[in-house]
Protein backbone atom coordinates (compact mmCIF):
# COMPACT_ATOMS: atom_id res chain seq x y z
CA UNK A 1 0.00 0.00 0.00
CA UNK A 2 1.25 3.50 -0.81
CA UNK A 3 0.30 6.83 0.69
CA UNK A 4 1.66 9.23 3.25
CA UNK A 5 4.03 7.60 5.67
CA UNK A 6 3.66 8.72 9.24
CA UNK A 7 6.49 10.99 10.25
CA UNK A 8 7.67 11.50 6.68
CA UNK A 9 8.56 14.93 5.37
CA UNK A 10 5.33 15.20 3.40
CA UNK A 11 3.24 18.30 3.04
CA UNK A 12 0.89 17.47 5.92
CA UNK A 13 3.77 16.93 8.33
CA UNK A 14 5.64 20.03 7.26
CA UNK A 15 2.57 22.25 7.49
CA UNK A 16 1.58 20.88 10.84
CA UNK A 17 5.12 21.59 12.06
CA UNK A 18 4.45 25.26 11.31
CA UNK A 19 1.69 25.20 13.90
CA UNK A 20 3.95 23.70 16.58
CA UNK A 21 4.32 24.62 20.24
CA UNK A 22 5.22 28.26 19.56
CA UNK A 23 1.64 28.70 18.38
CA UNK A 24 2.59 30.91 15.45
CA UNK A 25 2.49 30.11 11.77
CA UNK A 26 -0.38 28.94 9.65
CA UNK A 27 -2.60 26.56 11.59
CA UNK A 28 -3.08 23.50 9.35
CA UNK A 29 -5.63 21.27 10.99
CA UNK A 30 -5.18 17.51 10.99
CA UNK A 31 -6.83 15.51 8.24
CA UNK A 32 -9.85 13.53 9.41
CA UNK A 33 -9.83 9.74 9.78
CA UNK A 34 -13.52 9.44 8.95
CA UNK A 35 -14.88 6.41 10.79
CA UNK A 36 -18.49 7.05 9.85
CA UNK A 37 -17.80 6.99 6.09
CA UNK A 38 -15.33 4.08 6.36
CA UNK A 39 -17.77 2.02 8.43
CA UNK A 40 -20.47 2.74 5.83
CA UNK A 41 -18.21 1.38 3.07
CA UNK A 42 -17.41 -1.74 5.11
CA UNK A 43 -21.08 -2.32 5.85
CA UNK A 44 -21.94 -2.17 2.16
CA UNK A 45 -19.22 -4.78 1.45
CA UNK A 46 -20.56 -6.95 4.24
CA UNK A 47 -24.13 -6.63 2.89
CA UNK A 48 -22.91 -8.23 -0.37
CA UNK A 49 -21.32 -11.12 1.53
CA UNK A 50 -24.50 -11.56 3.58
CA UNK A 51 -26.51 -11.66 0.32
CA UNK A 52 -24.16 -14.36 -1.02
CA UNK A 53 -24.71 -16.39 2.15
CA UNK A 54 -28.49 -15.87 1.91
CA UNK A 55 -28.39 -17.28 -1.64
CA UNK A 56 -27.08 -20.48 -0.05
CA UNK A 57 -29.77 -20.41 2.62
CA UNK A 58 -27.57 -19.05 5.43
CA UNK A 59 -28.64 -16.03 7.50
CA UNK A 60 -25.97 -14.89 9.99
CA UNK A 61 -27.34 -13.93 13.41
CA UNK A 62 -25.81 -11.62 16.06
CA UNK A 63 -26.81 -12.16 19.68
CA UNK A 64 -26.41 -9.69 22.54
CA UNK A 65 -26.55 -10.33 26.27
CA UNK A 66 -27.42 -7.12 28.10
CA UNK A 67 -27.75 -7.11 31.89
CA UNK A 68 -29.36 -4.16 33.67
CA UNK A 69 -30.55 -0.82 32.35
CA UNK A 70 -27.46 1.37 32.11
CA UNK A 71 -28.50 3.90 29.43
CA UNK A 72 -25.08 3.84 27.74
CA UNK A 73 -25.03 0.05 27.44
CA UNK A 74 -28.63 0.07 26.17
CA UNK A 75 -27.73 2.63 23.50
CA UNK A 76 -24.68 0.61 22.36
CA UNK A 77 -26.69 -2.61 22.11
CA UNK A 78 -29.49 -0.80 20.25
CA UNK A 79 -26.94 0.56 17.78
CA UNK A 80 -25.54 -2.92 17.16
CA UNK A 81 -28.96 -4.30 16.27
CA UNK A 82 -29.64 -1.34 13.98
CA UNK A 83 -26.33 -2.09 12.19
CA UNK A 84 -27.41 -5.75 11.80
CA UNK A 85 -30.68 -4.73 10.14
CA UNK A 86 -28.72 -2.55 7.69
CA UNK A 87 -26.61 -5.43 6.37
CA UNK A 88 -29.16 -8.27 6.63
CA UNK A 89 -27.87 -9.96 9.80
CA UNK A 90 -30.58 -11.36 12.11
CA UNK A 91 -30.73 -10.04 15.70
CA UNK A 92 -31.14 -12.10 18.84
CA UNK A 93 -31.52 -10.21 22.11
CA UNK A 94 -31.18 -11.56 25.62
CA UNK A 95 -32.05 -8.68 27.98
CA UNK A 96 -31.78 -9.50 31.69
CA UNK A 97 -32.69 -7.33 34.71
CA UNK A 98 -29.97 -5.69 36.83
CA UNK A 99 -30.84 -8.23 39.55
CA UNK A 100 -29.87 -11.23 37.36
CA UNK A 101 -27.69 -13.76 39.15
CA UNK A 102 -24.44 -15.27 37.94
CA UNK A 103 -26.32 -18.51 37.17
CA UNK A 104 -29.02 -16.69 35.17
CA UNK A 105 -26.44 -14.91 33.05
CA UNK A 106 -24.61 -18.19 32.47
CA UNK A 107 -27.87 -19.80 31.30
CA UNK A 108 -28.35 -16.99 28.75
CA UNK A 109 -24.81 -17.60 27.46
CA UNK A 110 -25.38 -21.33 27.26
CA UNK A 111 -28.58 -20.80 25.25
CA UNK A 112 -26.78 -18.69 22.67
CA UNK A 113 -23.95 -21.26 22.47
CA UNK A 114 -26.55 -23.86 21.47
CA UNK A 115 -28.83 -21.64 19.33
CA UNK A 116 -28.19 -22.51 15.66
CA UNK A 117 -29.65 -19.11 14.59
CA UNK A 118 -26.89 -17.35 16.55
CA UNK A 119 -23.65 -17.16 14.53
CA UNK A 120 -21.89 -14.90 16.98
CA UNK A 121 -22.71 -12.86 20.06
CA UNK A 122 -21.40 -10.45 22.65
CA UNK A 123 -21.91 -10.03 26.38
CA UNK A 124 -22.21 -6.25 26.79
CA UNK A 125 -19.69 -4.96 29.34
CA UNK A 126 -19.53 -3.92 32.07
CA UNK A 127 -21.64 -6.52 33.88
CA UNK A 128 -23.22 -5.49 37.21
CA UNK A 129 -21.08 -5.49 40.38
CA UNK A 130 -20.82 -8.88 42.01
CA UNK A 131 -20.84 -10.79 38.71
CA UNK A 132 -17.67 -12.71 37.84
CA UNK A 133 -17.14 -11.28 34.34
CA UNK A 134 -14.19 -13.49 33.40
CA UNK A 135 -16.16 -16.61 34.29
CA UNK A 136 -19.03 -15.49 32.04
CA UNK A 137 -16.73 -14.61 29.14
CA UNK A 138 -14.89 -17.92 29.33
CA UNK A 139 -18.19 -19.77 28.86
CA UNK A 140 -18.71 -18.17 25.43
CA UNK A 141 -18.13 -20.66 22.59
CA UNK A 142 -14.87 -19.31 21.04
CA UNK A 143 -16.31 -19.89 17.55
CA UNK A 144 -19.21 -17.55 18.44
CA UNK A 145 -17.10 -14.88 20.16
CA UNK A 146 -18.05 -11.79 18.10
CA UNK A 147 -15.91 -9.52 20.33
CA UNK A 148 -12.77 -11.62 19.67
CA UNK A 149 -11.87 -11.39 23.35
CA UNK A 150 -12.27 -15.01 24.49
CA UNK A 151 -9.02 -16.37 25.99
CA UNK A 152 -8.81 -18.97 23.21
CA UNK A 153 -9.02 -16.31 20.51
CA UNK A 154 -6.62 -13.93 22.25
CA UNK A 155 -4.31 -16.91 22.77
CA UNK A 156 -4.36 -17.70 19.04
CA UNK A 157 -3.41 -14.09 18.37
CA UNK A 158 -0.44 -14.45 20.73
CA UNK A 159 0.69 -17.69 19.09
CA UNK A 160 0.22 -16.77 15.41
CA UNK A 161 2.87 -14.25 14.45
CA UNK A 162 2.19 -14.80 10.76
CA UNK A 163 -0.09 -16.71 8.43
CA UNK A 164 -3.87 -16.71 8.43
CA UNK A 165 -5.88 -16.30 11.61
CA UNK A 166 -9.09 -18.27 11.26
CA UNK A 167 -10.68 -16.99 14.46
CA UNK A 168 -12.43 -13.74 15.41
CA UNK A 169 -10.23 -10.69 16.07
CA UNK A 170 -10.82 -8.00 18.73
CA UNK A 171 -13.15 -5.42 17.17
CA UNK A 172 -11.67 -2.09 18.27
CA UNK A 173 -8.02 -2.96 17.43
CA UNK A 174 -9.11 -4.32 14.06
CA UNK A 175 -11.29 -1.23 13.47
CA UNK A 176 -8.39 1.13 14.25
CA UNK A 177 -6.09 -0.65 11.79
CA UNK A 178 -8.75 -0.72 9.03
CA UNK A 179 -9.52 2.96 9.60
CA UNK A 180 -5.88 3.96 9.13
CA UNK A 181 -5.21 1.64 6.17
CA UNK A 182 -8.36 2.69 4.33
CA UNK A 183 -7.08 6.27 4.41
CA UNK A 184 -4.06 5.16 2.37
CA UNK A 185 -1.62 5.01 5.29
CA UNK A 186 0.86 2.11 5.46
CA UNK A 187 1.64 1.08 9.04
CA UNK A 188 4.62 -1.14 8.14
CA UNK A 189 7.74 0.04 9.95
CA UNK A 190 5.94 2.72 11.94
CA UNK A 191 6.27 3.23 15.68
CA UNK A 192 2.86 3.00 17.34
CA UNK A 193 2.60 4.18 20.95
CA UNK A 194 -0.48 2.78 22.68
CA UNK A 195 -1.74 4.60 25.78
CA UNK A 196 -3.89 2.35 27.95
CA UNK A 197 -3.69 -1.26 29.14
CA UNK A 198 -7.33 -2.30 28.98
CA UNK A 199 -7.98 -5.76 27.55
CA UNK A 200 -10.31 -4.62 24.75
CA UNK A 201 -7.80 -2.22 23.17
CA UNK A 202 -4.43 -1.53 24.81
CA UNK A 203 -3.33 -5.03 25.68
CA UNK A 204 -4.58 -6.62 22.47
CA UNK A 205 -3.81 -4.15 19.66
CA UNK A 206 -0.06 -4.80 19.78
CA UNK A 207 -0.70 -8.47 19.02
CA UNK A 208 -2.21 -7.43 15.68
CA UNK A 209 0.17 -4.57 14.87
CA UNK A 210 3.31 -6.64 15.40
CA UNK A 211 2.19 -9.54 13.20
CA UNK A 212 4.60 -9.97 10.32
CA UNK A 213 2.23 -8.66 7.63
CA UNK A 214 1.58 -5.40 9.51
CA UNK A 215 5.15 -5.03 10.78
CA UNK A 216 4.61 -2.08 13.12
CA UNK A 217 6.69 -1.51 16.27
CA UNK A 218 4.61 -1.05 19.42
CA UNK A 219 5.23 0.64 22.77
CA UNK A 220 2.57 0.00 25.42
CA UNK A 221 2.18 2.84 27.93
CA UNK A 222 -0.47 3.44 30.59
CA UNK A 223 -1.50 5.74 33.42
CA UNK A 224 1.47 4.50 35.49
CA UNK A 225 4.02 5.44 32.82
CA UNK A 226 6.59 8.04 33.88
CA UNK A 227 7.27 10.80 31.32
CA UNK A 228 4.37 9.76 29.11
CA UNK A 229 5.01 12.66 26.70
CA UNK A 230 8.61 11.47 26.15
CA UNK A 231 7.17 8.22 24.77
CA UNK A 232 4.26 9.64 22.79
CA UNK A 233 6.42 12.32 21.15
CA UNK A 234 8.44 9.49 19.56
CA UNK A 235 5.29 8.03 17.97
CA UNK A 236 4.33 7.99 14.31
CA UNK A 237 0.92 6.80 15.53
CA UNK A 238 -0.69 7.35 18.95
CA UNK A 239 -3.56 5.10 20.02
CA UNK A 240 -5.19 6.94 22.95
CA UNK A 241 -7.17 4.32 24.87
CA UNK A 242 -6.58 5.12 28.54
CA UNK A 243 -10.14 6.21 29.31
CA UNK A 244 -8.83 9.48 30.77
CA UNK A 245 -10.48 12.50 29.12
CA UNK A 246 -7.96 14.77 27.39
CA UNK A 247 -4.88 12.79 28.52
CA UNK A 248 -3.26 13.37 25.10
CA UNK A 249 -2.50 17.07 24.80
CA UNK A 250 -0.80 18.97 21.96
CA UNK A 251 2.59 18.69 23.69
CA UNK A 252 2.30 14.88 23.62
CA UNK A 253 2.18 14.81 19.83
CA UNK A 254 4.96 15.05 17.28
CA UNK A 255 3.87 17.39 14.47
CA UNK A 256 2.33 15.37 11.65
CA UNK A 257 1.69 12.25 13.73
CA UNK A 258 -1.43 10.11 13.37
CA UNK A 259 -3.68 10.21 16.46
CA UNK A 260 -6.56 7.84 17.22
CA UNK A 261 -9.00 8.82 19.96
CA UNK A 262 -10.43 5.65 21.46
CA UNK A 263 -11.65 7.12 24.78
CA UNK A 264 -15.31 6.76 25.74
CA UNK A 265 -15.74 8.33 29.18
CA UNK A 266 -19.10 9.65 30.32
CA UNK A 267 -18.64 13.07 31.94
CA UNK A 268 -20.98 15.77 33.22
CA UNK A 269 -20.66 18.90 31.08
CA UNK A 270 -19.78 21.89 33.33
CA UNK A 271 -21.87 24.29 31.28
CA UNK A 272 -25.02 22.31 30.48
CA UNK A 273 -25.02 19.90 33.45
CA UNK A 274 -25.81 17.06 31.00
CA UNK A 275 -23.71 13.94 30.54
CA UNK A 276 -21.70 13.62 27.35
CA UNK A 277 -18.94 11.39 26.02
CA UNK A 278 -15.39 12.63 26.38
CA UNK A 279 -12.46 11.27 24.38
CA UNK A 280 -8.83 10.83 25.45
CA UNK A 281 -7.57 13.49 23.03
CA UNK A 282 -7.50 17.21 23.85
CA UNK A 283 -9.09 19.32 21.06
CA UNK A 284 -5.83 21.28 20.59
CA UNK A 285 -4.21 18.14 19.16
CA UNK A 286 -5.99 18.87 15.85
CA UNK A 287 -3.53 21.76 15.37
CA UNK A 288 -0.47 19.49 15.66
CA UNK A 289 -1.40 16.05 14.34
CA UNK A 290 -1.24 15.13 10.65
CA UNK A 291 -4.27 12.85 10.95
CA UNK A 292 -6.84 12.62 13.74
CA UNK A 293 -9.85 10.37 14.30
CA UNK A 294 -12.83 12.43 15.45
CA UNK A 295 -14.78 11.28 18.48
CA UNK A 296 -17.65 10.64 17.88
CA UNK A 297 -17.42 9.56 14.26
CA UNK A 298 -14.02 7.84 14.39
CA UNK A 299 -13.15 4.57 16.09
CA UNK A 300 -16.67 3.92 17.52
CA UNK A 301 -18.42 3.25 14.20
CA UNK A 302 -15.42 1.13 13.12
CA UNK A 303 -15.72 -1.05 16.24
CA UNK A 304 -19.34 -1.70 15.35
CA UNK A 305 -18.50 -2.51 11.72
CA UNK A 306 -15.86 -5.03 12.85
CA UNK A 307 -18.39 -6.74 15.11
CA UNK A 308 -20.52 -7.31 12.01
CA UNK A 309 -17.44 -8.51 10.10
CA UNK A 310 -16.72 -11.08 12.82
CA UNK A 311 -20.28 -12.42 12.57
CA UNK A 312 -20.22 -12.61 8.75
CA UNK A 313 -16.82 -14.33 8.83
CA UNK A 314 -18.02 -16.84 11.43
CA UNK A 315 -20.98 -17.67 9.15
CA UNK A 316 -18.65 -18.05 6.16
CA UNK A 317 -16.33 -20.32 8.17
CA UNK A 318 -19.26 -22.49 9.24
CA UNK A 319 -20.09 -22.97 5.53
CA UNK A 320 -16.90 -24.71 4.43
N1 LIG B 1 -18.78 -6.73 24.99
C1 LIG B 1 -18.55 -5.45 24.67
N2 LIG B 1 -18.07 -5.16 23.44
C2 LIG B 1 -17.83 -3.86 23.08
O1 LIG B 1 -17.37 -3.59 21.96
C3 LIG B 1 -18.10 -2.82 24.04
C4 LIG B 1 -18.61 -3.18 25.30
N3 LIG B 1 -18.82 -4.50 25.59
N4 LIG B 1 -18.87 -2.25 26.23
C5 LIG B 1 -18.72 -0.82 25.95
C6 LIG B 1 -17.69 -0.55 24.87
C7 LIG B 1 -17.87 0.79 24.18
N5 LIG B 1 -18.13 0.50 22.79
C8 LIG B 1 -18.49 1.43 21.82
C9 LIG B 1 -18.82 1.06 20.53
C10 LIG B 1 -19.25 1.99 19.59
C11 LIG B 1 -19.37 3.32 19.93
C12 LIG B 1 -19.87 4.28 18.91
O2 LIG B 1 -20.22 3.92 17.81
N6 LIG B 1 -19.93 5.58 19.27
C13 LIG B 1 -20.41 6.63 18.39
C14 LIG B 1 -21.12 7.69 19.18
C15 LIG B 1 -22.21 7.17 20.07
C16 LIG B 1 -22.75 8.23 21.02
O3 LIG B 1 -22.58 9.44 20.76
O4 LIG B 1 -23.36 7.83 22.03
C17 LIG B 1 -19.23 7.27 17.69
O5 LIG B 1 -18.11 7.14 18.18
O6 LIG B 1 -19.46 7.93 16.68
C18 LIG B 1 -19.02 3.71 21.19
C19 LIG B 1 -18.59 2.78 22.13
C20 LIG B 1 -18.14 -0.85 22.61
N7 LIG B 1 -17.89 -1.49 23.76
TrEMBL record:
One of its GO terms (cellular component) is cytosol. One of its GO terms (biological process) is L-histidine biosynthetic process. Pfam families: THF_DHG_CYH (PF00763), THF_DHG_CYH_C (PF02882). It catalyses: (6R)-5,10-methylene-5,6,7,8-tetrahydrofolate + NADP(+) = (6R)-5,10-methenyltetrahydrofolate + NADPH; (6R)-5,10-methenyltetrahydrofolate + H2O = (6R)-10-formyltetrahydrofolate + H(+). Pathway: One-carbon metabolism; tetrahydrofolate interconversion. Its EC number is 1.5.1.5, 3.5.4.9. Residues 1-29 are annotated as: Disordered. GO terms for molecular function: methenyltetrahydrofolate cyclohydrolase activity; methylenetetrahydrofolate dehydrogenase (NADP+) activity. Keywords: Amino-acid biosynthesis, Histidine biosynthesis, Hydrolase, Methionine biosynthesis, Multifunctional enzyme, NADP, One-carbon metabolism, Oxidoreductase, Purine biosynthesis. Residues 170-318 form the Tetrahydrofolate dehydrogenase/cyclohydrolase NAD(P)-binding domain. NADP(+) binds at residues 196-198, 264. InterPro entries: Aminoacid_DH-like_N_sf (IPR046346), NAD(P)-bd_dom_sf (IPR036291), THF_DH/CycHdrlase (IPR000672), THF_DH/CycHdrlase_cat_dom (IPR020630), THF_DH/CycHdrlase_NAD-bd_dom (IPR020631). Residues 33-147 form the Tetrahydrofolate dehydrogenase/cyclohydrolase catalytic domain. Catalyzes the oxidation of 5,10-methylenetetrahydrofolate to 5,10-methenyltetrahydrofolate and then the hydrolysis of 5,10-methenyltetrahydrofolate to 10-formyltetrahydrofolate. Homodimer. PANTHER family: C-1-TETRAHYDROFOLATE SYNTHASE, CYTOPLASMIC, C-1-TETRAHYDROFOLATE SYNTHASE, CYTOPLASMIC-RELATED. Belongs to the tetrahydrofolate dehydrogenase/cyclohydrolase family. This is Bifunctional protein FolD. The lineage of its organism: Bacteria, Bacillati, Actinomycetota, Actinomycetes, Micrococcales. The gene is folD.
